[in-house]
Amino acid sequence: MGNLCAGGIGSSHAPTTYDDHVQMTPPRQRPATPTPGQSPLRELGRRPVPPSPGASRLNTPMRTPIGTPMRSPMSSVEQRMLQDIQQMTPEINHLIGVTRGIPPLRAQYDAAVQVQGQIRRRLDGDIRAGGGDDFRRRMGRIRNQVTNYYARHPDAALPPAQRPRGGAAGVSNDVLQTASNMLTGFETVVFHGANGMESLKVLDHLQDIARNREVDPAVIDAARQADNNPAALVANLLALVQQNPPILSSNTRR
Fold first, then answer.
1. Is residue 65 packed enough to be buried (19+ CB in 10 Å), middle (13-18) or exposed (0-12)?
2. Which residues pair with 214 in a beta bridge?
3. What pLDDT digit, counting tens, does each position of 94-130 carry?
4. Where are the domains of the chain?
5. Which of 87, 85, 69 is nearest to 77 (CA)?
6. Measuring CA to CA, which residue among 248, 229, 235, 223 is closest to residue 192?
7. Based on C-alpha coordinates, what's the Rg of the chain?
């Protein structure tokens, strides 16, 4: 009995060795109970830790910044407004026609030409050009002034119909050459808004202006509105050949 108590000498069993390096599983900590001054939702307000610079972003969800406007297709309201503006084109063209070449109505003519240019830009997508209500109000004012003029001057007659010449547009030769090169592909900046047949029709208008031929008055208006800008000149003349019915050069094959 004494031998057993003194180190286990003479025992038939191998001594048991305990490993000092065995790691014990730490006990699970119970979540702390919020104090009366703390909200249980306070954890939701914590921002996630941003990924390190070298971390992959493949699995990082994309976040849309707060306040970023979402792009949406053209609404039905916008479509109806553009259709309404498109229907103003015949009237503004008529107002230009009945005021062109009449000195007492020069201010009304200039105002109508300005509205016509803004209508074209708005139909091309430039929202800064104005809106339908503004166009309608200005056209109504021009119409009333023209009507009052003819009411006060019943004997007034329009000047004989005559076609102006291209030189009246005041477009420089350099601008005409650059505009032609944009259509034919010989310019660094190429105009891609016209197909082959439309490009030829615009070129006919440019040649009429360059050679001082007789042109439609609308060609003079379109060229003046371009203000010696080649790209704007091409765009304005293209609008003439694309409208229905088109305004074509007398030298264009029909």
1. exposed
2. 165
3. 898 888 878 889 999 999 999 998 998 888 888 888 8
4. 76-152, 166-242
5. 85
6. 235
7. 40
